[in-house]
Amino acid sequence: MKRNAIAVALSLFAGAAALAQVPAPLPSRGMLCPRPTVRDIKGEISPPVQDPSDLPANLIPLTAGSTWNQTAINKGFAHTFHFKMDVCCGWSSGTLTMEVKALQGGGAGTSSSANDGVSVFSNKVVVPPQASPWSSGVQTGATKTLTFQIPASALARDMVSIYVEDDTAVVWAHLHLEGCCIR
Questions:
Q1: Gap between the Cα atoms of 124 and 104, Å rounded
Q2: For the segment 64-77, what is each residue's pLDDT rounded down to a tens digit?
Q3: pTM here?
Q4: DSSP string over the chain
């Protein structure tokens, strides 16, 4: 009887120890990930770069010379985040957060920041949803924080781009990535 009690206690202890070492599940697939990984990229640390292989060709001339927290109206903004992953790894999800600022106040439907849109692109295709931060009108200098969930399919090319129309500045933009490595 004493041996059985010891055996049961040891098996319970071993089971609890094994559970404590179970790898974290991948949120998008529900399978176990042996080596979860994250990466945070602060875009505003370096000058914006527009990658023509990720953005539609018509946006490149509209966003040439983009700067963070620009002050000029009638100037579009674009930036491509690059995030190379190791061969035995893959990105499962991303969250893009940015702060935008209205450079030209106006009412809904006017030719001001109120009619500007914000888009995320992957492989020259919009990753839904697009955002209209000032659609009901805005005052000059108003700021707003926007968040976009980026699916794994949009992260497969190791880059994602943002485009903001011409009367809205991008103060900063951060990309948070989550992924999994099998080795």
A1: 28
A2: 999 999 999 999 99
A3: 0.81
A4: -HHHHHHHHHHHHHHHHHHHTPPPBPTTT--B-SEEEEEEEEGGGS-----TTTS-TTHHHHHTT--TT---SS--EEEEEE----TTEEEEEEEEEEEEEESS-EETTSSSGGG--EEEEETTEE-SPPB-TTTTEE-TT-EEEEEEEEEHHHHTTSEEEEEE-TTEEEEEEEEEEEEEE--
